[in-house]
Design brief:
This protein is mostly helical. The chain is built from 18 helices and no strands. Belongs to the major facilitator superfamily. Bcr/CmlA family.
């Protein structure tokens, strides 16, 4: 068992926000920090270093589906503790790897633990707060965690100039150890009387309940489709910026960071908006702005006008909306399944991060040597996300009419 709750921090204090933000940032940091070192890793390990990203995402998606029901049954702290231990072990394994097979294996192992951070941070917020307050808190967490994808590539790029890529994974091991220690100060947000008492098999059956929950799936698919588009940019942008437009690799990180600054800015704004407007209305507005930006991007890349400036501008607007879309869609989805928030958060995370696999496959299959492939993938799935937002509204209206008739 864990130490006495006397050591726990207050759930309304800055330390609580910082720890949850750091837990949510573990995933981004685990991938983004070593991106500048991938060419060197591929040479040293004599293999395709991109497999380390694929392996991490696969492990991340699958493991969440196990940890979710476990957290509903045993509480949030125990899975977080075990997860951080696995993350540290996986990081050390990556640092000691000498070939591509070894490091891909340890990246999968690392993901088994890393996934507990963002998944259970979301669940803990839902345990503690009502939907509006939860959206406010998630916007705050996203604002803080956005530092990771900005600092990660910049830090990794500097480290690789003075030391080997192994040191990056040693650093991740140290960060994981600090996160492990911080878990002891987190309160248990799911009291025993609210935990799922069914067997693990019964808890896993909750996924069927979630998949057949129309309201939950509308919000979840809205977020998933948006992230397919987002990962299309994350995966395709190195080719578009560096290879196609000839941007210096040292400046690529700044172009990427430019988008994250937009996410942080909208997250700050969203903290106020959630108290003034319905979450569904905010989500609908944000996703339609993102869809418009993605369609403009697809048209520009397809017709070959606007150049890199238009692409950078359209992508910036697209990513800015993430500050609203992620917070509102997550809270609304969790609100549709409050009694199994752990499983719900796990399924949201599995689909959200698994969307990156879809993006990478589509880019590999349909790449034509121009930015057009990235453009049409982003537009297609952002429009699909907007369609889900319309479906969500229709479902809500239908349920209201049914209630009035009854």
């Amino acid at each position: 068992m864990f130490p006495s709750q006397v050591l726990s921090i207050k759930t309304t204090g800055l330390p609580f926000i910082i720890i949850l933000s750091a837990l949510m940032a573990v995933t981004s940091l685990s991938t983004d920090i070593y991106l500048p070192a991938m060419p060197v890793m591929a040479k040293d390990l004599q293999g395709n270093a991109e497999l380390t990203v694929t392996g991490f995402l696969i492990g991340f998606c699958i493991a969440q589906l196990i940890w979710g029901p476990l957290s509903d049954h045993f509480g949030r702290r125990m899975p977080l503790f075990v997860g951080m231990v696995l993350f540290v072990i996986g990081s050390v394994g990556c640092a000691l790897s000498s070939d591509i097979v070894q490091i891909v294996f340890w990246r999968v192992f690392q993901a088994l633990g890393a996934c507990t951070g963002p998944m259970l941070a979301r669940a803990m917020i839902r345990d503690l707060y009502s939907r509006t307050r939860a959206a406010h808190m998630l916007s705050t967490l996203m604002m803080v965690m956005a530092i990771a994808p900005i600092a990660g590539p910049l830090l990794g790029g500097q480290m690789i100039t003075v030391t080997s890529w192994h040191s990056i994974f040693w650093l991740l091991g140290i960060i994981g150890t600090l996160m492990l220690i911080s878990v002891f100060w987190l309160p248990e947000t799911l009291p025993e009387e609210k935990r799922v008492q069914a067997s693990l098999y019964g808890a896993l059956c909750n996924y069927y309940q979630l998949l057949t929950n129309a309201k939950f799936m509308c919000f979840t698919l809205c977020l998933t489709f948006y992230y397919v588009a987002a990962y299309a940019f994350i995966t395709g942008s190195p080719f578009v910026y560096i290879t196609y437009f000839g941007v210096d690799p040292q400046h690529y990180g700044w172009l990427f960071a430019f988008n994250i600054v937009g996410v942080m800015a909208l997250s700050i704004v969203n903290r106020r908006l959630v108290h003034r407007y319905p979450l569904e209305a905010l989500l609908k507005f944000a996703i339609f702005v993102a869809a418009l930006a993605a369609v403009v991007l697809a048209a520009a890349t397809g017709l070959g006008f606007g150049g890199i400036s238009l692409i950078v501008g359209a992508v910036f607007i697209f990513f800015c909306m993430n500050g609203i879309i992620s917070a509102t869609s997550t809270v609304c989805a969790l609100d549709a399944a409050p009694n199994i928030a752990g499983s719900a958060s796990a399924l949201i995370g599995a689909l959200q991060y698994g969307s990156g696999i879809i993006s990478s496959l589509l880019l590999a299959l349909f790449s034509d040597g121009t930015p057009w492939t990235m453009g049409w993938i982003m537009a297609t799935f952002t429009v699909a996300s907007a369609v889900m937002a319309l479906t969500m509204q229709a479902t809500k209206a239908g349920s209201e009419q049914s209630t009035i008739k009854n």
